[in-house]
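Reminder: ligand-aware prediction takes two inputs, not one.
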Amino acid sequence: MSVSFEPDHAASWYAATANPAPERSALEDEVSCDVCVVGAGFTGISAALHLAECGFSVVVLEAVKVGYGASGRNGGQIVNSYSRDLDVIEEKYGAETARALGDMAFEGNRIIRERVAKYAIDCDLRNGNLFAACNQKQLEGLREHQALWERYGYRELELLEGEAVTREVNSRRYTGGLVDHGGGHLHPLNLVLGQAAAVESLGGRIFEYSPVTGVTHGEPAVVHTAKGRVRAERVVMAGNAYLKGVLPEIEGKSMPCGTQIITTEPLGEERARALIPNGLAVEDCNYLLDYYRLTRDNRLLYGGGVNYGGSDPTDITAVIRPKMLTTFPELDDVKVDYAWSGTFLMTLNRLPQFGVVNGNVYYAQGYSGHGVTCTHLAGRLIAEVMTGREERFDAFAGLPQLPFPGGRLLRVPLSAIGAWYYQTRDKLGV
Ligand SMILES: Cc1cc2nc3c(=O)[nH]c(=O)nc-3n(C[C@H](O)[C@H](O)[C@H](O)COP(=O)(O)OP(=O)(O)OC[C@H]3O[C@@H](n4cnc5c(N)ncnc54)[C@H](O)[C@@H]3O)c2cc1C
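Here is what comes back for the chain with flavin-adenine dinucleotide:
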């Protein structure tokens, strides 16, 4: 399933409340640079910013606009660590790999906060997120999760059992929850726009409406768009789920997945606070999870569902609103003002894929649903590897990158069957 480019941002609450950004032109001639970055989401812009700070000349090519992809339209939840937890990494890939990844599991979050402070980015950054358990088994899982992260030195977690969880989220759905006081949420489009401005302030160049059509490998590599090309010593591929037909070496071993978000009309402070009293971001522990939070103007921004292959439902509100009403039945009279869809990239082991093709084309992708923090780490590690410090990048690059069973044709139905199985287990609480 391919992802096609629309002419502008998705019609999201984020696009409606984006900070002003300059009109950026398309690439129409030939330019040269040290590093050409393909894709202006968190991965690409984070890499470009770290590289520009290290003194590299950087050109970013974006198919549509900065933040057009998942980065400008996600739940905005700052979730620490990775989509696959550290105990599974220990079990599958050994203690040394788990330690290396564990040492970096909270760094992406720190990078975001450093960026926001250093470049004074106005993106509604708020502290705290909650993992909500829908049954006793999930609550036990959260207890283990707390012990696990504490083993990796992270001590910001607070377990809430039974009724105590209603202190943070006023819903009958949950048997408990785990607060991460060090997590949080933000306006993701404004975060990426702010970092793009920082790239430009350091001399980096960003071209919009410049979809890359191919790369001629070599030293330098040549990156082609419809009307221009970039000669670059190195290339960073950061197109994630939206990349199609540019670098086959990295496109076959992952699966684009769609997920949808709705945003209500403003609820007013009192009604909003009655739902989530301390304003945490919330995600439940189901295999196909719901995730939600309040916006700065007291709307409820509610996401959920996964479409394997990245295809969108025709009526997003009809799919997501019932989920929201299961959590908060009292919102039955509330209007939905925005509904949109986005695509993230799933990998078979739920761990990101980092690597290098032909010696100078680097990539980082496949954060499998939790990418806000890890994309920011990826940008730093790409800059590190380009300045001769390979070790931390290689800790990720050494992870297996396996294709989905069934290949391009059958990976979608096979994954849907797997998801149905886990969803049924969640419903039964087993
Ligand atoms: C609806 C939704 C909700 C989510 N919620 C959360 C959340 O709350 N917390 C969390 O941690 N994660 C969340 N995620 C995941 C997270 O958003 C992603 O993992 C992350 O944004 C990926 O960033 P990226 O820069 O790698 O990719 P993207 O942000 O998708 O950026 C890729 C960019 O590359 C461009 N591009 C692609 N191909 C080309 C080409 N050929 N030429 C030029 N440009 C190209 C695209 O236009 C796009 O702008 C969510 C994802 C979605 C879709």
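The mean pLDDT is 94. The two ends are 33 Å apart (CA to CA). We will return to this case in the review session.
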